[in-house]
Structure formats: structure tokens, C-alpha cells
């Protein structure tokens, strides 16, 4: 005879929460207000871009997307603003659904202040992690949402242990653990996903929630103020360290150059060099490298402006001579001849 499962096996891991609807949700809850801000920003961005599906690069930068060049220039607010910026309606829809379905439940459990701290803290830390590991522009609330998943995972785990202590049975429904695993797998499978932001947000949400539970008296954990403060201090120091690394100009230029070297196409490589030139507009080496890529992949006449600019001073002329030698060494005689024409006083380009 098979034992019947205990009622505890089907009990929810976290207590059910009745979520407000309509205006009571949008204006009466922190999660609703966050969604309202996201919606307003998305609609204005769509209007400015004349598209719901793909905002222009200029609009994304204007509204605060994470931009490595902007961070190096001192625009530190770009660690925060990407939380409220989304790249198209599909991105906005999925993040909004995530916030709607898990936001208010965690807001009731954590309290409005801690919920907002977890959401914004995870979003900021996620953007810092993204800036440390990637030179791509990015935006979205995914880091903040992963912070909420991390928070739910910690609570779920602690509640599960408590239920096991009381009943002898571990709850089988590990909803937050499942969502964390599934979203990480999707992030690894789908190109263009900012996994660093996701993982940064996840770790932050776990750490902040664990700290909260050890700072405030509750029936799940014993209070341990020193341990909680140590975790929060470590998180803060990591954020400061990551932000410091992210705004290092020399490191960013080096990363753009390396990205250009391993780019999948000449156009992609040119893009990375142009980003580097946003940081150092007159850098002769970067201009010469752009000339090289243009001569090898595009209409050579598109490089004339850069060539003439480099010839205006001795350092730039030296870079062009170095580039000409590289072409000759690699057997690219037409490109070498094109540069030789300008190096010896030519005023108009000959076809190659």
C-alpha cells in the first residue's frame, strides 16, 4: 500500500499574497510605481524613435542606456538609468511581466523599503558587472529582476528549511530556484543577453535579502548584525571597485582595440574603433587603424578624410608610413600604393 503524500508537500513555499489591481496597484505599491515609470519611459522612447520595436541608438543614449564611453566621461548616472530603459516592446513586455508576477509578493514580504533597495541595488550592481565585462551598450531591468529572483530564492530556501524542521518534509515546489536556473540557461543559449548583469543582480539580491533577515528579528533566522553588515560592506566595496574599473579610460581603449581585433566583420571592427575615438578623438594610432580597416573593406575614398588629418602632423604621418609598411609586408600592394600617393604629396585619390 502506497503512502498518501502529506498536505505539506503541496503547501506553497511562500505565503500567498492578494495583489491589488488597477489604480491601487499602479499608484499604491512600489512595484506598481516602478512599472508605471518603465511604461512612461518606454512610450516616450517609442514616440521619439517612431518605433515600438527598436529604438534608435541616439534615443537609447539620450534616455540613459549603459554606455561605456559615457561612464568614462563621468556619466555615472548610467549605472542607474538603464534599469528603466528597454530596447523594444518585446524586451519591455517580458521584464514587465516578471515585475508584475513576482514584484508585489516580495514587496509584501520584504517591506517597501527593502524591496526598493533590492530592486535598485541589484539593478545598479548588475549594470556595474556589465560595464566591467562588456563594452557593448545595454539597457533593461533584467539585473533588477534577477535581484528579485535571488531574493525569492533566499526566502524560499529558508522557509523550506523551517518547514522541514517542523514537519520532517522538504517542500518540493522550488519555484524561485527553478526560475533562476531556467533564466540562466536561457541567457547562455540566446545571443546578445547580458549575462553579467543578470548574475550581478542575482548575487546582489541574495546578499541583500540575507542581510535583511539577519538584521531584523524574524522566525526564520537568528539575528546577526555583524555578519549582515559585513556582507553589505563587502557588496558595497565590490560595487565601488567595479565602478572604478569601469571608468578607467586606458582599460576601455584597450578593450575596444581587442574587440576590434576579434570582430566578426570589418564593419564591426570599425564600430569598436569609432567608440574608442569617442574617448580619444585625435588619437593617431586609432585613426590609422580605422584607415587600415576602411582601405581593406570599404570604398577607399571613405578614408581620405582620416588620411589627410593624419598627414597634418608628423606623428600622424609616421602612423601612415607604419601602415604602408604593414600593407607591403602582407602583400596588399594596392592599399600600399594608395597610401604612398598621399605620403608623396598627392592631393586626390587614385582608384585601387
Number of domains: 2
Q: What is Rg?
A: 26 Å
H-E order: HHHHHHHHHHHHHHHH
**Whole-Å distance between the termini?**
87 Å
Say which CATH homologous superfamily of the largest domain is assigned: Rhomboid-like
Strand percentage, roughly? under 5%
What is the general shape?
elongated
Question: Would you identify the regions where 5 or more consecutive residues have pLDDT less than 50?
Answer: 1-14
- CATH topology-level fold name of the largest domain: Rhomboid-like fold
Major β-sheet annotation: none
Tell me the CATH architecture of the largest domain. Answer: Up-down Bundle
- Output the number of helix runs: 16
Give a structural overview.
Helices cover 68% and strands 0% of the residues. With 352 residues, it is mainly alpha-helical. It folds into 2 domains: 7-246, Rhomboid-like fold (Up-down Bundle); 249-343, Serine Threonine Protein Phosphatase 5, Tetratricopeptide repeat, CATH 1.25.40. It is elongated, with a radius of gyration of 26 Å.
Layout of helices and strands:
Layout: H1 23-28, H2 30-49, H3 57-62, H4 68-72, H5 89-110, H6 112-133, H7 142-167, H8 175-189, H9 195-215, H10 225-246, H11 249-261, H12 266-279, H13 284-297, H14 304-311, H15 314-329, H16 333-343
Helix pairs in contact: 2-5, 5-6, 5-7, 6-7, 6-9, 6-10, 7-8, 7-9, 8-9, 9-10, 11-12, 12-13, 13-14, 13-15, 14-15, 15-16
